[in-house]
Amino acid sequence: MATATARRTLVTTLLLAPATAWLVVFLVLPFIAVIVFSVGLRAPEGGYQAAFTLAQYANLGARSTAFWNTMVLAPAGALACLLVAYPVAYYLALRVSPRRRLILLALVVIPFWTSLLMRTYAWMYILGARGIPAFLDLIGIPDVRLLNTPGSVMLGIVYGYLPLMILPIYVSLERLDRRLLEASADLGATPVSTFLGVTLPLSLPGVMTGISLVTILLLGEYLIPTLLGGGKVFFIGNALVDLFLQSRNWPFGSAIAVTLVVASVLVLLVANRVTARISGARQVDLI
Protein backbone atom coordinates (compact mmCIF):
# COMPACT_ATOMS: atom_id res chain seq x y z
CA MET A 1 0.00 0.00 0.00
CA ALA A 2 2.81 2.37 0.95
CA THR A 3 4.64 1.58 -2.27
CA ALA A 4 1.53 2.27 -4.36
CA THR A 5 0.97 5.58 -2.54
CA ALA A 6 4.58 6.60 -3.05
CA ARG A 7 4.33 5.69 -6.74
CA ARG A 8 1.20 7.81 -7.19
CA THR A 9 2.87 10.71 -5.37
CA LEU A 10 5.92 10.43 -7.62
CA VAL A 11 3.79 10.33 -10.77
CA THR A 12 1.76 13.33 -9.62
CA THR A 13 4.95 15.24 -8.82
CA LEU A 14 6.46 14.49 -12.22
CA LEU A 15 3.26 15.54 -13.99
CA LEU A 16 3.07 18.82 -12.08
CA ALA A 17 6.79 19.59 -12.31
CA PRO A 18 6.75 21.27 -15.79
CA ALA A 19 3.80 23.53 -14.94
CA THR A 20 5.27 24.34 -11.52
CA ALA A 21 8.65 25.20 -13.04
CA TRP A 22 6.94 27.40 -15.66
CA LEU A 23 5.01 29.30 -12.98
CA VAL A 24 8.08 29.75 -10.78
CA VAL A 25 10.32 30.98 -13.60
CA PHE A 26 7.84 33.20 -15.44
CA LEU A 27 5.54 34.34 -12.61
CA VAL A 28 6.98 33.98 -9.12
CA LEU A 29 10.57 35.06 -9.79
CA PRO A 30 9.61 38.13 -11.90
CA PHE A 31 7.14 39.21 -9.21
CA ILE A 32 9.83 38.86 -6.55
CA ALA A 33 12.07 41.05 -8.71
CA VAL A 34 9.29 43.65 -8.96
CA ILE A 35 8.92 43.64 -5.16
CA VAL A 36 12.67 44.14 -4.76
CA PHE A 37 12.61 47.02 -7.25
CA SER A 38 9.68 48.63 -5.41
CA VAL A 39 11.72 49.15 -2.24
CA GLY A 40 14.67 50.63 -4.14
CA LEU A 41 15.48 54.06 -5.51
CA ARG A 42 15.61 55.52 -8.99
CA ALA A 43 19.19 55.66 -10.25
CA PRO A 44 20.45 59.09 -11.39
CA GLU A 45 20.40 57.94 -15.03
CA GLY A 46 17.14 56.09 -14.59
CA GLY A 47 16.38 52.50 -13.71
CA TYR A 48 16.98 50.85 -10.35
CA GLN A 49 19.38 51.62 -7.55
CA ALA A 50 19.65 49.15 -4.66
CA ALA A 51 18.15 50.43 -1.40
CA PHE A 52 15.50 49.59 1.14
CA THR A 53 12.83 52.24 1.48
CA LEU A 54 9.06 52.51 1.39
CA ALA A 55 9.19 55.98 -0.13
CA GLN A 56 7.80 54.69 -3.43
CA TYR A 57 4.67 53.40 -1.71
CA ALA A 58 4.30 56.64 0.22
CA ASN A 59 4.35 58.47 -3.13
CA LEU A 60 1.47 56.50 -4.68
CA GLY A 61 -0.75 59.57 -4.36
CA ALA A 62 1.26 61.21 -7.15
CA ARG A 63 -0.62 58.92 -9.56
CA SER A 64 -3.99 59.35 -7.87
CA THR A 65 -5.70 60.29 -11.15
CA ALA A 66 -4.69 56.99 -12.77
CA PHE A 67 -5.78 55.07 -9.67
CA TRP A 68 -9.08 56.93 -9.51
CA ASN A 69 -9.87 56.41 -13.20
CA THR A 70 -9.02 52.72 -12.94
CA MET A 71 -10.96 52.09 -9.73
CA VAL A 72 -14.01 53.87 -11.14
CA LEU A 73 -14.02 52.83 -14.79
CA ALA A 74 -12.92 49.21 -14.26
CA PRO A 75 -15.90 48.25 -12.03
CA ALA A 76 -18.20 50.46 -14.12
CA GLY A 77 -16.98 48.73 -17.28
CA ALA A 78 -17.54 45.31 -15.70
CA LEU A 79 -21.06 46.34 -14.68
CA ALA A 80 -21.80 47.68 -18.18
CA CYS A 81 -20.54 44.40 -19.66
CA LEU A 82 -22.81 42.51 -17.26
CA LEU A 83 -25.90 44.50 -18.24
CA VAL A 84 -25.29 43.71 -21.90
CA ALA A 85 -23.98 40.16 -21.45
CA TYR A 86 -26.68 38.70 -19.19
CA PRO A 87 -29.59 39.02 -21.67
CA VAL A 88 -27.37 37.63 -24.43
CA ALA A 89 -26.25 34.67 -22.29
CA TYR A 90 -29.84 34.07 -21.13
CA TYR A 91 -31.08 34.00 -24.72
CA LEU A 92 -28.29 31.66 -25.83
CA ALA A 93 -28.71 29.23 -22.94
CA LEU A 94 -32.48 29.07 -22.52
CA ARG A 95 -34.18 30.41 -25.63
CA VAL A 96 -32.23 29.02 -28.59
CA SER A 97 -32.15 25.56 -30.15
CA PRO A 98 -28.83 23.68 -29.80
CA ARG A 99 -28.05 24.02 -33.51
CA ARG A 100 -28.52 27.80 -33.59
CA ARG A 101 -26.79 28.09 -30.23
CA LEU A 102 -23.48 26.86 -31.65
CA ILE A 103 -23.65 29.39 -34.47
CA LEU A 104 -24.45 32.29 -32.13
CA LEU A 105 -21.70 31.24 -29.69
CA ALA A 106 -19.26 31.24 -32.58
CA LEU A 107 -20.35 34.79 -33.42
CA VAL A 108 -19.66 35.79 -29.81
CA VAL A 109 -16.14 34.35 -29.94
CA ILE A 110 -15.22 35.48 -33.48
CA PRO A 111 -14.11 39.01 -32.40
CA PHE A 112 -11.28 37.34 -30.44
CA TRP A 113 -9.89 36.12 -33.75
CA THR A 114 -9.01 39.71 -34.61
CA SER A 115 -6.40 41.73 -32.75
CA LEU A 116 -7.78 44.06 -30.09
CA LEU A 117 -5.56 46.74 -31.60
CA MET A 118 -7.32 46.51 -34.96
CA ARG A 119 -10.78 46.48 -33.36
CA THR A 120 -9.93 49.51 -31.25
CA TYR A 121 -8.62 51.37 -34.30
CA ALA A 122 -11.97 50.66 -35.98
CA TRP A 123 -13.74 52.33 -33.06
CA MET A 124 -11.37 55.29 -33.37
CA TYR A 125 -12.65 55.82 -36.90
CA ILE A 126 -16.29 55.27 -35.94
CA LEU A 127 -16.12 57.74 -33.05
CA GLY A 128 -13.74 60.15 -34.78
CA ALA A 129 -14.52 63.25 -36.80
CA ARG A 130 -15.26 61.24 -39.97
CA GLY A 131 -17.51 58.72 -38.24
CA ILE A 132 -20.63 59.25 -36.15
CA PRO A 133 -19.95 62.98 -35.53
CA ALA A 134 -19.88 63.56 -39.30
CA PHE A 135 -23.23 61.82 -39.68
CA LEU A 136 -24.72 63.83 -36.80
CA ASP A 137 -23.45 67.02 -38.42
CA LEU A 138 -25.26 66.10 -41.65
CA ILE A 139 -28.60 65.78 -39.82
CA GLY A 140 -28.15 69.09 -38.02
CA ILE A 141 -26.37 68.15 -34.79
CA PRO A 142 -22.95 69.81 -35.09
CA ASP A 143 -19.88 69.82 -32.85
CA VAL A 144 -20.48 66.44 -31.21
CA ARG A 145 -17.34 65.01 -29.66
CA LEU A 146 -17.23 61.29 -28.95
CA LEU A 147 -13.56 60.33 -29.17
CA ASN A 148 -11.08 61.00 -26.35
CA THR A 149 -13.75 60.95 -23.66
CA PRO A 150 -14.54 58.60 -20.74
CA GLY A 151 -17.62 57.52 -22.70
CA SER A 152 -15.54 56.34 -25.65
CA VAL A 153 -13.25 54.42 -23.28
CA MET A 154 -16.28 52.78 -21.66
CA LEU A 155 -17.64 51.82 -25.08
CA GLY A 156 -14.31 50.27 -26.04
CA ILE A 157 -14.21 48.36 -22.75
CA VAL A 158 -17.69 46.89 -23.26
CA TYR A 159 -16.95 45.92 -26.84
CA GLY A 160 -13.53 44.44 -26.03
CA TYR A 161 -14.45 42.45 -22.93
CA LEU A 162 -18.08 41.51 -23.56
CA PRO A 163 -17.33 37.89 -24.66
CA LEU A 164 -15.43 37.29 -21.40
CA MET A 165 -18.59 38.21 -19.51
CA ILE A 166 -21.01 36.31 -21.74
CA LEU A 167 -19.26 32.93 -21.63
CA PRO A 168 -19.17 32.25 -17.84
CA ILE A 169 -22.77 33.44 -17.45
CA TYR A 170 -23.80 31.23 -20.37
CA VAL A 171 -22.12 28.21 -18.76
CA SER A 172 -24.02 28.79 -15.49
CA LEU A 173 -27.34 29.21 -17.28
CA GLU A 174 -26.76 26.28 -19.64
CA ARG A 175 -26.18 23.95 -16.67
CA LEU A 176 -29.35 25.16 -14.96
CA ASP A 177 -31.83 22.33 -14.26
CA ARG A 178 -34.87 23.13 -16.41
CA ARG A 179 -37.07 21.17 -14.01
CA LEU A 180 -36.65 23.95 -11.45
CA LEU A 181 -38.11 26.44 -13.90
CA GLU A 182 -40.98 24.11 -14.69
CA ALA A 183 -41.66 23.54 -10.99
CA SER A 184 -41.69 27.28 -10.36
CA ALA A 185 -44.21 27.78 -13.17
CA ASP A 186 -46.36 24.86 -11.94
CA LEU A 187 -46.50 26.47 -8.50
CA GLY A 188 -47.96 29.61 -10.03
CA ALA A 189 -44.91 31.86 -10.15
CA THR A 190 -44.82 34.53 -12.82
CA PRO A 191 -41.93 34.60 -15.31
CA VAL A 192 -40.45 37.57 -13.43
CA SER A 193 -40.72 35.77 -10.08
CA THR A 194 -39.15 32.65 -11.59
CA PHE A 195 -36.28 34.69 -12.95
CA LEU A 196 -35.66 36.55 -9.68
CA GLY A 197 -36.18 33.52 -7.45
CA VAL A 198 -34.62 30.71 -9.48
CA THR A 199 -32.69 31.73 -12.60
CA LEU A 200 -30.79 34.72 -11.27
CA PRO A 201 -29.62 33.13 -7.98
CA LEU A 202 -28.47 29.96 -9.74
CA SER A 203 -26.51 31.97 -12.32
CA LEU A 204 -24.77 34.23 -9.79
CA PRO A 205 -21.57 32.11 -9.66
CA GLY A 206 -21.14 32.70 -13.40
CA VAL A 207 -21.93 36.38 -12.91
CA MET A 208 -19.27 36.69 -10.21
CA THR A 209 -16.76 34.84 -12.38
CA GLY A 210 -17.37 37.19 -15.28
CA ILE A 211 -17.20 40.29 -13.09
CA SER A 212 -13.95 39.25 -11.43
CA LEU A 213 -12.37 38.21 -14.74
CA VAL A 214 -13.26 41.45 -16.54
CA THR A 215 -12.41 43.67 -13.57
CA ILE A 216 -8.96 42.13 -13.07
CA LEU A 217 -8.11 42.50 -16.76
CA LEU A 218 -9.35 46.10 -16.75
CA LEU A 219 -7.14 46.98 -13.78
CA GLY A 220 -4.13 46.58 -16.08
CA GLU A 221 -5.74 47.86 -19.29
CA TYR A 222 -3.50 50.09 -21.40
CA LEU A 223 -4.52 49.98 -25.07
CA ILE A 224 -8.15 51.14 -24.90
CA PRO A 225 -7.50 54.23 -22.72
CA THR A 226 -4.54 55.17 -24.91
CA LEU A 227 -6.36 54.97 -28.25
CA LEU A 228 -9.92 55.91 -27.31
CA GLY A 229 -9.02 58.18 -24.40
CA GLY A 230 -6.40 60.11 -26.35
CA GLY A 231 -4.12 60.46 -23.32
CA LYS A 232 -6.88 62.23 -21.39
CA VAL A 233 -8.21 59.14 -19.60
CA PHE A 234 -5.29 57.52 -17.78
CA PHE A 235 -5.42 54.03 -16.28
CA ILE A 236 -2.80 52.43 -14.05
CA GLY A 237 -1.52 50.55 -17.11
CA ASN A 238 -0.77 53.88 -18.80
CA ALA A 239 1.07 55.06 -15.69
CA LEU A 240 3.19 51.88 -15.68
CA VAL A 241 4.20 52.33 -19.32
CA ASP A 242 5.15 55.95 -18.65
CA LEU A 243 7.20 55.10 -15.54
CA PHE A 244 9.06 52.14 -17.01
CA LEU A 245 9.64 53.33 -20.59
CA GLN A 246 9.53 57.13 -20.47
CA SER A 247 10.69 58.46 -17.11
CA ARG A 248 12.51 55.19 -16.31
CA ASN A 249 11.45 55.32 -12.67
CA TRP A 250 11.47 51.57 -12.15
CA PRO A 251 11.07 51.57 -8.35
CA PHE A 252 7.95 53.77 -8.44
CA GLY A 253 6.53 51.77 -11.34
CA SER A 254 7.22 48.56 -9.42
CA ALA A 255 5.41 49.92 -6.35
CA ILE A 256 2.38 50.69 -8.51
CA ALA A 257 2.59 47.22 -10.09
CA VAL A 258 2.68 45.54 -6.67
CA THR A 259 -0.32 47.63 -5.59
CA LEU A 260 -2.13 46.56 -8.76
CA VAL A 261 -1.43 42.88 -8.05
CA VAL A 262 -2.70 43.28 -4.48
CA ALA A 263 -5.89 44.91 -5.80
CA SER A 264 -6.36 42.03 -8.27
CA VAL A 265 -5.91 39.46 -5.49
CA LEU A 266 -8.47 41.30 -3.35
CA VAL A 267 -10.95 41.22 -6.23
CA LEU A 268 -10.42 37.46 -6.57
CA LEU A 269 -10.81 36.88 -2.82
CA VAL A 270 -14.02 38.89 -2.67
CA ALA A 271 -15.41 37.12 -5.76
CA ASN A 272 -14.53 33.69 -4.34
CA ARG A 273 -16.07 34.56 -0.98
CA VAL A 274 -19.29 35.80 -2.56
CA THR A 275 -19.47 32.79 -4.90
CA ALA A 276 -18.91 30.38 -1.99
CA ARG A 277 -21.67 32.00 0.05
CA ILE A 278 -24.01 31.96 -2.93
CA SER A 279 -23.26 28.30 -3.62
CA GLY A 280 -23.81 27.40 0.04
CA ALA A 281 -27.09 29.26 0.18
CA ARG A 282 -28.18 27.58 -3.05
CA GLN A 283 -27.47 24.12 -1.64
CA VAL A 284 -29.43 24.90 1.53
CA ASP A 285 -32.37 26.22 -0.50
CA LEU A 286 -32.44 23.13 -2.70
CA ILE A 287 -32.36 20.83 0.31
UniProtKB/TrEMBL annotation:
It comes from the Bacteria. Pfam families: BPD_transp_1. It comes from Labrys monachus. Residues 67-271 form the ABC transmembrane type-1 domain. Signal peptide: none annotated. The keyword Cell membrane applies. It is a multi-pass membrane protein. Its main location: membrane. InterPro entries: MetI-like, MetI-like_sf. It is found in: Cell membrane. Keywords: Cell membrane, Membrane, Transmembrane, Transmembrane helix, Transport. Belongs to the binding-protein-dependent transport system permease family. CysTW subfamily. The chain crosses the membrane at residues 12-37, 66-90, 102-126, 153-173, 194-219, 250-271. This is Spermidine/putrescine transport system permease protein.
